[in-house]
Amino acid sequence: LKNEGSTWDEIDFEFLGNLTGDPYTVHTNVITGGKGDREQQFHLWFDPTVDFHTYSILWNPHVIVFYVDGTPIREFKNLDSTKVPFPKSSAMRIHSSIWNADDWATRGGLVKTDWTKAPFTASYKNFSTQACIWPSGVGTYPCNSYPWLAKELDAASLERLLWVQKHYMVYNYCIDRERFPQGLPPECAATT
């Protein structure tokens, strides 16, 4: 999900390249006001090329949750009251693309794209969105009936999220003190 402009907001759900036989890595990021650096990465517990899977994002005024087949893998809470930016003031668009990021995305740039395997394709089915669209000048009134507007992780979902993070998370910016020697970003104190 992304909006336009020099200080854009973006919610990334990306697949990183790999060597044959290596686990597939999902890369997530939350960009607010044009600033990202909020990456978390996960090895998938299955081969996503064998069959279709469901990748979902819940984005409401309280939280952003990334899901794989209904299992939450990442939660980014709205901590705006503590001056942590949260994408909530601009509409977003959905983008899908295949792009070459082998300078960083494949084991830190060690694995290069094998262009002899082109063309590269991605397939989608059963795509759906639920969104709140309201006319300009009107507050959130038309959106109040959407149940997802107030949804947050319940205890069972939070337990599944923590299990996935313990077993499949391979990178978390919130523990990367080498990258942030002056101190971890403020949301890391409250991030699951």
How are the secondary structure elements laid out?
Elements: E1 10-16, E2 25-31, E3 40-43, E4 55-59, E5 63-68, E6 71-77, H1 155-168, E7 169-172
Antiparallel strand pairs: 1-2, 2-3, 3-7, 4-5, 5-6
Descriptive key words:
mainly beta, 4-stranded antiparallel beta sheet, glycoprotein, xyloglucan:xyloglucosyl transferase activity, hydrolase activity, hydrolyzing O-glycosyl compounds, Jelly Rolls, globular, cell wall biogenesis/degradation, 3-stranded antiparallel beta sheet
Mean pLDDT across every amino acid position:
87
CATH topology value: Jelly Rolls
CATH class category label: Mainly Beta
Q: Residue share in helices?
A: under 10%
Uncertain residue ranges: none
H and E string: EEEEEEHE
- Give the strand order, joined by hyphens, for the main sheet: 1-2-3-7
**Strand element count:** 7
What would you call the shape? globular
Q: Kindly name the structural category.
A: mainly beta
The assigned CATH architecture is Sandwich
Computed CA radius of gyration, to the nearest angstrom: 18 Å
Describe the fold and architecture.
- There is one protein chain.
- This protein is mostly beta strands and about 190 residues long.
- The protein has one domain (about 10-190): Jelly Rolls.
- About 5% of the residues lie in helices and about 20% in strands.
- It contains one helix and seven strands, in the order E-E-E-E-E-E-H-E.
- A four-stranded antiparallel sheet has the order 1-2-3-7. A three-stranded antiparallel sheet has the order 4-5-6.
- The mean pLDDT is about 85.
- One of its GO terms (biological process) is cell wall organization.
- Its main location: secreted.
- It is found in: Secreted, Cell wall; Secreted, Extracellular space, Apoplast.
